[in-house]
Amino acid sequence: MLPNDEDDLIPLSALQHWLFCPRQAALIHVERLWAEDQATAEGRLLHERVDEGRGGTRSGIRIARGLQIRSLALGVFGKADVVELGTTSDGRLRPYPVEYKRGRPKAHRADEVQLCAQAICLEEAFDTAVPKGALFYGAERRRTVVAMDADLRALTARVASEARAAILAGFSPAPVKTPACRRCSMESLCQPDRLSAPPGIDRWLRRQIEAALADAPGEGM
User: Fold this and answer.
1) Tens-digit pLDDT profile for residues 8-28
2) Residue 122 belongs to a domain with what CATH number?
3) Is residue 1 part of a domain?
Protein backbone atom coordinates (compact mmCIF):
# COMPACT_ATOMS: atom_id res chain seq x y z
CA MET A 1 0.00 0.00 0.00
CA LEU A 2 1.82 3.06 -1.25
CA PRO A 3 0.96 6.50 0.18
CA ASN A 4 -1.43 8.70 -1.76
CA ASP A 5 0.21 11.87 -0.44
CA GLU A 6 2.62 13.01 2.24
CA ASP A 7 -0.10 12.84 4.89
CA ASP A 8 0.08 9.05 4.56
CA LEU A 9 3.76 8.87 5.50
CA ILE A 10 4.65 7.44 8.92
CA PRO A 11 7.74 8.20 11.03
CA LEU A 12 10.75 6.20 9.98
CA SER A 13 11.38 5.33 13.64
CA ALA A 14 8.10 3.37 13.64
CA LEU A 15 9.80 0.62 11.63
CA GLN A 16 12.30 -0.03 14.39
CA HIS A 17 9.56 0.09 17.01
CA TRP A 18 7.33 -2.27 15.01
CA LEU A 19 10.01 -4.89 14.43
CA PHE A 20 11.02 -4.78 18.10
CA CYS A 21 7.40 -4.89 19.35
CA PRO A 22 4.19 -4.06 17.41
CA ARG A 23 2.48 -3.16 20.69
CA GLN A 24 5.21 -0.61 21.50
CA ALA A 25 4.88 0.88 18.01
CA ALA A 26 1.12 1.26 18.42
CA LEU A 27 1.39 2.89 21.84
CA ILE A 28 3.84 5.45 20.46
CA HIS A 29 2.49 6.10 16.96
CA VAL A 30 -1.25 5.35 17.32
CA GLU A 31 -2.08 6.15 20.95
CA ARG A 32 0.59 8.89 21.18
CA LEU A 33 1.95 7.64 24.50
CA TRP A 34 5.53 7.82 25.68
CA ALA A 35 7.49 7.00 28.83
CA GLU A 36 11.18 7.70 29.24
CA ASP A 37 13.73 5.84 31.29
CA GLN A 38 17.50 6.17 31.62
CA ALA A 39 18.20 4.25 28.42
CA THR A 40 15.78 6.26 26.26
CA ALA A 41 16.98 9.53 27.79
CA GLU A 42 20.59 8.65 27.03
CA GLY A 43 19.63 7.70 23.47
CA ARG A 44 17.72 10.94 22.96
CA LEU A 45 20.62 13.04 24.22
CA LEU A 46 23.04 11.12 21.99
CA HIS A 47 20.92 11.86 18.91
CA GLU A 48 20.60 15.50 19.89
CA ARG A 49 24.38 15.86 20.24
CA VAL A 50 24.96 14.17 16.90
CA ASP A 51 22.31 16.25 15.10
CA GLU A 52 23.66 19.50 16.56
CA GLY A 53 27.27 18.71 15.69
CA ARG A 54 29.14 20.56 13.00
CA GLY A 55 29.05 19.42 9.41
CA GLY A 56 31.84 20.16 7.02
CA THR A 57 34.29 18.11 5.00
CA ARG A 58 36.71 15.41 6.10
CA SER A 59 39.17 13.69 3.75
CA GLY A 60 37.13 14.85 0.79
CA ILE A 61 33.87 13.55 2.30
CA ARG A 62 31.11 16.05 3.03
CA ILE A 63 29.31 15.50 6.34
CA ALA A 64 25.59 16.30 6.70
CA ARG A 65 23.88 16.03 10.10
CA GLY A 66 20.21 15.82 11.00
CA LEU A 67 19.21 15.48 7.34
CA GLN A 68 15.45 15.36 6.73
CA ILE A 69 14.59 12.41 4.47
CA ARG A 70 11.57 10.54 3.12
CA SER A 71 10.68 7.59 0.90
CA LEU A 72 7.46 7.40 -1.09
CA ALA A 73 8.24 3.76 -1.89
CA LEU A 74 8.28 2.83 1.80
CA GLY A 75 5.85 5.51 2.93
CA VAL A 76 8.11 6.92 5.64
CA PHE A 77 9.75 10.18 6.65
CA GLY A 78 12.35 11.02 9.25
CA LYS A 79 15.82 12.26 9.96
CA ALA A 80 19.26 10.73 9.34
CA ASP A 81 21.80 11.26 12.13
CA VAL A 82 24.81 11.57 9.81
CA VAL A 83 25.12 11.23 6.06
CA GLU A 84 28.60 11.12 4.56
CA LEU A 85 28.59 12.28 0.96
CA GLY A 86 31.31 10.84 -1.23
CA THR A 87 31.45 10.88 -5.01
CA THR A 88 31.02 8.12 -7.57
CA SER A 89 33.36 7.53 -10.50
CA ASP A 90 31.11 9.66 -12.70
CA GLY A 91 31.16 12.56 -10.22
CA ARG A 92 27.76 12.09 -8.62
CA LEU A 93 27.23 12.26 -4.85
CA ARG A 94 26.93 8.90 -3.10
CA PRO A 95 25.41 9.05 0.40
CA TYR A 96 26.53 6.78 3.22
CA PRO A 97 24.18 6.86 6.25
CA VAL A 98 25.53 6.47 9.78
CA GLU A 99 23.01 5.87 12.58
CA TYR A 100 24.07 6.35 16.20
CA LYS A 101 22.89 4.01 18.99
CA ARG A 102 23.70 4.22 22.68
CA GLY A 103 24.08 0.50 23.47
CA ARG A 104 25.47 -2.55 21.69
CA PRO A 105 24.51 -4.57 18.60
CA LYS A 106 21.24 -6.45 19.14
CA ALA A 107 20.04 -9.96 18.36
CA HIS A 108 17.07 -8.62 16.35
CA ARG A 109 17.42 -6.55 13.17
CA ALA A 110 15.45 -3.44 14.14
CA ASP A 111 18.51 -1.16 13.98
CA GLU A 112 19.48 -2.56 10.58
CA VAL A 113 15.95 -2.04 9.24
CA GLN A 114 16.01 1.58 10.40
CA LEU A 115 19.35 2.13 8.66
CA CYS A 116 18.17 0.37 5.48
CA ALA A 117 15.07 2.59 5.39
CA GLN A 118 17.36 5.62 5.58
CA ALA A 119 19.40 4.22 2.69
CA ILE A 120 16.26 3.79 0.58
CA CYS A 121 15.22 7.36 1.39
CA LEU A 122 18.63 8.59 0.29
CA GLU A 123 18.50 6.54 -2.91
CA GLU A 124 15.28 8.32 -3.85
CA ALA A 125 16.68 11.72 -2.92
CA PHE A 126 20.03 11.37 -4.70
CA ASP A 127 18.97 8.99 -7.51
CA THR A 128 21.89 6.66 -6.84
CA ALA A 129 22.46 3.30 -5.18
CA VAL A 130 23.35 3.19 -1.48
CA PRO A 131 24.90 -0.26 -1.01
CA LYS A 132 26.19 0.20 2.54
CA GLY A 133 25.82 2.20 5.72
CA ALA A 134 26.96 1.94 9.33
CA LEU A 135 25.62 1.68 12.86
CA PHE A 136 27.74 3.38 15.52
CA TYR A 137 27.19 1.84 18.96
CA GLY A 138 28.17 4.04 21.89
CA ALA A 139 29.01 1.16 24.21
CA GLU A 140 31.61 -0.14 21.74
CA ARG A 141 32.70 3.19 20.26
CA ARG A 142 33.01 1.74 16.79
CA ARG A 143 31.03 1.33 13.61
CA THR A 144 29.30 -1.81 12.42
CA VAL A 145 29.07 -1.79 8.62
CA VAL A 146 25.72 -2.94 7.25
CA ALA A 147 25.30 -4.17 3.67
CA MET A 148 21.96 -3.22 2.11
CA ASP A 149 21.47 -6.66 0.58
CA ALA A 150 18.29 -8.15 -0.90
CA ASP A 151 17.23 -9.88 2.33
CA LEU A 152 17.52 -6.71 4.42
CA ARG A 153 15.70 -4.65 1.79
CA ALA A 154 12.88 -7.20 1.65
CA LEU A 155 12.58 -7.23 5.44
CA THR A 156 12.54 -3.43 5.52
CA ALA A 157 9.81 -3.25 2.87
CA ARG A 158 7.70 -5.83 4.72
CA VAL A 159 8.06 -4.09 8.08
CA ALA A 160 7.25 -0.72 6.51
CA SER A 161 4.11 -2.13 4.88
CA GLU A 162 2.90 -3.81 8.08
CA ALA A 163 3.64 -0.79 10.28
CA ARG A 164 2.00 1.69 7.91
CA ALA A 165 -1.14 -0.43 7.54
CA ALA A 166 -1.54 -0.78 11.31
CA ILE A 167 -0.75 2.84 12.16
CA LEU A 168 -2.95 4.36 9.46
CA ALA A 169 -5.78 2.02 10.54
CA GLY A 170 -5.30 3.06 14.17
CA PHE A 171 -4.76 -0.57 15.20
CA SER A 172 -3.24 -1.37 18.61
CA PRO A 173 -2.42 -5.07 19.10
CA ALA A 174 -2.75 -6.73 22.47
CA PRO A 175 0.48 -7.05 24.47
CA VAL A 176 2.52 -10.24 24.43
CA LYS A 177 4.64 -10.79 27.52
CA THR A 178 8.31 -11.44 26.69
CA PRO A 179 11.61 -11.10 28.60
CA ALA A 180 12.23 -7.85 26.67
CA CYS A 181 9.28 -6.23 28.46
CA ARG A 182 11.40 -5.75 31.58
CA ARG A 183 13.76 -3.50 29.62
CA CYS A 184 11.05 -1.45 27.90
CA SER A 185 10.28 2.06 29.15
CA MET A 186 6.66 1.56 28.01
CA GLU A 187 5.97 -1.44 30.27
CA SER A 188 3.83 0.49 32.76
CA LEU A 189 1.67 1.86 29.92
CA CYS A 190 1.52 -1.45 28.05
CA GLN A 191 0.71 -3.56 31.14
CA PRO A 192 1.74 -6.90 29.62
CA ASP A 193 1.37 -8.78 32.94
CA ARG A 194 -2.30 -7.84 33.20
CA LEU A 195 -3.38 -7.71 29.56
CA SER A 196 -1.34 -10.36 27.73
CA ALA A 197 -3.41 -13.21 29.21
CA PRO A 198 -6.74 -11.69 30.28
CA PRO A 199 -9.21 -13.99 32.02
CA GLY A 200 -12.00 -15.50 29.96
CA ILE A 201 -15.23 -13.54 30.03
CA ASP A 202 -17.09 -16.46 31.63
CA ARG A 203 -14.63 -16.64 34.52
CA TRP A 204 -14.77 -12.86 34.93
CA LEU A 205 -18.58 -12.89 35.04
CA ARG A 206 -18.60 -15.76 37.52
CA ARG A 207 -16.25 -13.88 39.85
CA GLN A 208 -18.40 -10.74 39.61
CA ILE A 209 -21.54 -12.70 40.48
CA GLU A 210 -19.82 -14.48 43.36
CA ALA A 211 -18.56 -11.17 44.72
CA ALA A 212 -22.02 -9.60 44.43
CA LEU A 213 -23.65 -12.52 46.25
CA ALA A 214 -21.03 -12.39 49.01
CA ASP A 215 -21.74 -8.69 49.57
CA ALA A 216 -25.53 -9.08 49.50
CA PRO A 217 -27.37 -8.82 52.88
CA GLY A 218 -28.63 -12.12 54.32
CA GLU A 219 -32.30 -13.13 54.29
CA GLY A 220 -34.43 -11.64 57.01
CA MET A 221 -32.18 -8.69 57.58
Assistant:
1) 899 999 999 999 889 889 899
2) 3.90.320
3) no
